[in-house]
Amino acid sequence: MAVFLSFFFRISIRFGLVGLLAICLGCGASDRAYVSGKIVHADGTPLVLAKVIANCPENSKTAYGSTDGDGYYQIAIGTEEKGIPPGNYVVYLIEDHGVEEGKMKRTIAKKYTDPNTSGLSFVVAAGESKVFDITTDPP
Which GO terms describe its molecular function (predicted)? Predict the structure, then answer.
C-alpha cells in the first residue's frame, strides 16, 4: 500500500508541476500589439462614425475599429480578442455619415477609402502600444 501511495504521490507532483509550468508560460509577455488614435479633419474637427480598417499582408490579418463622437478609435482583430498581431499594416477609412440625395456625403478625400491609395500605414511590434493619429484631407 505504501508503494502505491508513493507512486501516486510522485505522479501527482509531476502533473502538478507540468500544469504550473503551462500556467506560467501563459503569463509571459503579450504577443499582441495595441493601436489606438484620433482621426480629425484638416480643420481639427473629429471624423465621427468612420470605420478604420488595417490590413497586414504578412499574416493575412485584418483589424477593425470605429471612431467615436470625438474621433477616437482602437483596432482589434475581433470582438473577443484585444489588440492585433505584430506586423506592417496598411490602413484605410470608410465613412458612415448617411445618405444625401442618394449619394453618400463624403467628408474626406476619396484616396482614404482604398488601401492602395490612402498613404496610411504603421508598423507594430509584439507588446507595443502605438498611438496612430490621422489628419485627413478634404474631398
Answer: carbohydrate binding
Residue 137 DSSP label: P
* Structural contact between residues 84 and 124, judged by C-beta atoms closer than 8 angstroms: yes
- The secondary element (H helix, E strand) that includes residue 78 is none
Do 121 and 90 reside in the same domain of the chain? Answer: yes
pLDDT digits (tens, 9 = 90+) for 50-60: 999 999 999 89
Domain count, the chain: 2
Q: How far apart are CA 70 and CA 13, in angstroms?
A: 55
Residue with cell 477609402: 113
Cell of 95: 465613412
Structural domain for 82, as ranges = 34-136
Within this chain, do residues 19 and 41 fall inside the same structural domain, yes or no? no
| Cβ atoms < 10 Å from Cβ of 77 | 17
